[in-house]
Write a structure and sequence with these properties.
Length: 431
């Protein structure tokens, strides 16, 4: 475009237009000027189109660490400092580096960050403030603050960056923010999902239409499973290892009143760990035996069903969600409320899988990370081998390595690395 402008300027200066000498530009020259002006307009329009149609390479999801599309910068939420840090993780030569560029103050209790596909803007949800900060990554400052949220948690953008979804944790809604003008977004309604929505993930089919994508939202806490039956408690699954189920909801993008599909994540009958119901605590004692679940065979205490009883677990605290191919992976803290209180039969680190096309759980692909860790070869300290992952909080898909990484609190490096996050757990590749 600069070449066209230069040519046009030189031409106009060389022309004798109507003036004191009475000369006028010839019609062919006028026509040429018109063509050049048209080319300038087309070129500008093309440049504008490139900006407004930036498309993310991968599906978006709730995270506290967001990587720009060129994999050069990380935007990291600092929850206790009420800020976000911008960290360079790759230099101009493609080498991995760890350089903090700046730290930007945002609202109180930042929970999630999403980077716009243009890599120039990031959106940060602030739980206590009830706001979303619009961060200008070019100028390194907050460009705007959007009001009108209720304890916002998860956030996710549609692939082309036209819509931002925000989970309002205590309002039971998912807000819709129009971000087609990235630095000047507009709050535009909310989807009623109920309860406590937490993590979000949006599909990416690779086209320019965001309206054909699907939004997934997790409910942080499990719900009672109506199919669970214990005659002693009239079918109520409260306090039972298999009495509840996890919940994920799905709805089409671009609609403030969409149909909502509920996807349930079933409890697992055998977590991979067994418990002794007789010793050191005798739950088969007539004075304390509340149910055949606690004491499967009260007539024979030596029965293996009592001494080596398989323990179930249900998905709970669904704090994260990640889409890879046609799978939604949901790391969660599996709960086992039944006694005994033993470290390996009360909490499990689960990852459930959902088919993003069928909108249904793929139970056969559920993974218990603790069960995988149990079979590791132990190594002496300070090795973390066989360290149980009690609280899976997040995950990341690494495109170049074609692996999913699960993040465990306490294992994250001091300076986050875009290529890994805590213990690495490989999941089957899909698509």
């Amino acid at each position: 475009m600069n070449l066209i402008k230069s040519t046009l300027t030189s031409l106009m200066r060389s022309l004798r237009l109507r003036g004191e000498e009475g000369w006028v530009a010839l019609r062919p020259v006028i026509a040429l000027v018109a063509v050049l002006l048209g080319l300038i307009g087309l070129n500008a329009a093309a440049q504008q189109q490139v900006v407004t149609t930036s498309t993310a390479a991968t599906p978006s999801r709730s995270t506290t660490i967001a990587l720009t599309s060129d994999e050069t910068r990380l935007v990291v939420v600092n929850r206790e400092a009420n800020s976000v840090s911008i960290i360079r993780v790759k230099d101009a030569n493609g080498n991995d580096v760890a350089e903090k560029l700046t730290e930007i103050s945002v609202g109180e209790d930042p929970r999630c960050v999403a980077v716009h596909p243009n890599d120039e803007v990031a959106y940060v949800t602030n739980g206590i403030s009830g706001t979303v900060s619009v961060v200008d990554l070019v100028r390194g400052r907050v460009a705007a603050t959007i009001m009108g949220f209720t304890e916002p948690r998860g956030c996710a953008l549609t692939p082309n960056g036209s819509l931002l979804y925000v989970a309002n944790h205590t309002a039971g809604t998912v807000s819709i923010v129009v971000t087609s003008n990235p630095l000047n977004p507009v709050l535009d309604g909310a989807v009623q999902v109920g309860r406590n929505p937490t993590a979000l993930a949006v599909t990416n089919d690779g086209d320019a239409d965001d309206a054909d994508e699907t939004v997934f939202v997790t409910q942080i806490f499990a719900e009672l499973d109506p199919n669970f039956n214990d005659p002693k408690f009239d079918g109520n699954g409260e306090g039972r290892d298999r009495g509840k189920r996890g919940v994920v909801q799905a709805f089409p993008a671009g609609n403030a009143n969409p149909p909502i599909t509920e996807i349930t994540l079933a409890a697992i009958a055998d977590s991979g760990f067994n418990a002794n119901r007789v010793t050191p605590f005798n739950f088969c004692n007539a004075a304390v035996a509340h149910s055949l679940i606690f004491c499967p065979n009260p007539h024979d205490l030596t029965d293996p069903i009592n001494t080596n009883n398989p323990q179930g677990v249900f998905p709970n605290q669904l704090l994260s969600a990640l889409i890879r191919g046609n799978r939604l992976y949901v790391p969660n803290i599996g709960a086992q409320p039944e006694p005994p209180e033993v470290f390996n039969v009360n909490v499990q680190a689960l990852v459930n899988a959902v088919d993003t096309n069928a909108l249904a759980e793929v139970a056969a692909e559920t993974v218990n990370l603790n069960q995988q860790i149990e079979v590791e070869t132990a190594a002496p300290p300070p090795s973390l081998d066989r360290t149980f992952g009690k609280r899976p909080r997040g995950d990341r898909w690494e495109p170049r390595r074609r692996q999913v990484f699960d993040c465990q609190p306490g294992r994250q490096p001091a300076v986050p690395c875009h290529a890994r996050c805590g213990r690495q757990t490989r999941y089957p590749e899909r698509g």
